[in-house]
Amino acid sequence: MGQDEELPVDERSKEGPSSTTRSDRYWLILNPISGRADHIEQIRRLATDRGYRIEETEEEEHAIELAAAAAAAAADVLAVAGGDGTVHEAVQGLVKMDALDDMILGVIPVGTENIFATNIGIQDIEQGFAALETGEMRRIDVGFAGKEPFVTSCIAGLPADASVATSPELKERFGSLGFIIAGLQEVAMFEELHLEVKAISQDEETTWAGDALCVLVGNIRRFTKRGGQANVEDGLFDVTIVKQMPTIDLIAEGTVQRLLGHDTEHILNLKASRLEINELHGEAIDFSLDGELSVHERLDLRTHPHALTICVGSEYESDPTGE
């Protein structure tokens, strides 16, 4: 769609002054080194054809500044061409400017995993641009770990260590397999977590304490019962606590959880609008927020229901489990 053509349905209630051009209202953050870094020319061509203002990231956390600048400029639409880490930074920038309610977010997936994009029904670059032009808009929950937002997940324990340990070189060389390689490298060095976890849902509190391999908190992502997309519009986290157990039991119980969806002895599933995670020995825990490292001895997590407007693909389901 060219710059002078009719604006998409996203613009229903966001028409600006007649002197405002589309590039003032439509910003695109481009991470040139996401994934295999072979997307730059295509993204620039498609974005230019559609009248976007293109801003390219130059260093880590630059997307935070660019998203904040888009909010300060009163942009209506912010497209993010990158992976999960770039999306995470862009949301941080909107929160920094108290602008979650003021902008429509779209994702152009060019990262290694693209977990967030996949779970909102965006599989490739063309689908990302199509969703921004004519796709359905949904209001989704945003999680907060302390003051830092996340849209996909917050992970503590072995998977977090593996995610953080996956170097850019591994991602570039092996793609998704790089995460598995890093995970195998981390298993030999991993020590269990000594935790107390308090989960609050509808004023009911559940407390668990003990040794755990990990705590998996999904906003748009589920980790057990077949995995995949969680309901990101229900105001609740999908929480999985994997207790310390022998490796052979971990494999067996993980298989039962994924294939059959049954609860097992060492894997606990909860729903919660708020969580408190405490390390009982006062040691620091590596958390992975949308794949980015965050270190805490104690962390409070909460949901902000329906806090962000996003453009979704045709395969997106608001309640994929039918629960």
Structural class: alpha+beta
Instruction: Give the SSE order as H and E letters.
Output: HEHEHEHEHHEEEHHHEEEEEHEEEEE
Question: What is the CATH C-level name of the largest domain?
Answer: Mainly Beta
Name of the CATH architecture of the largest domain: Sandwich
Rg, rounded, reads 20 Å
Global outline: elongated
Percent helix among the residues?
Answer: 25-40%
* Poorly predicted regions: 1-19, 164-185
DSSP, total strands: 17
Write down the CATH topology of the largest domain.
Tumour Suppressor Smad4
Mean pLDDT: 82
Largest sheet: 15 strands, mixed
Strand content: 25-35%
Q: Tell me the span between the first and last alpha carbons.
A: 39 Å
Q: How many structural domains in the coordinates? A: 2
Number of helices: 10
Blueprint of the fold:
Elements: H1 22-25, E1 26-30, H2 40-49, E2 53-56, H3 62-72, E3 77-82, H4 84-96, E4 104-109, H5 115-119, H6 125-134, E5 136-145, E6 148-150, E7 153-157, H7 158-165, H8 168-174, H9 177-187, E8 193-201, E9 204-218, E10 221-222, E11 228-229, E12 237-243, H10 247-260, E13 267-272, E14 274-279, E15 285-289, E16 292-296, E17 298-312
Parallel strand pairs: 1-2, 1-3, 3-4, 4-17
Antiparallel strand pairs: 5-6, 5-17, 7-9, 7-15, 8-9, 8-14, 9-12, 10-11, 12-13, 14-17, 15-16
Helix pairs in contact: 3-4, 7-9, 8-9
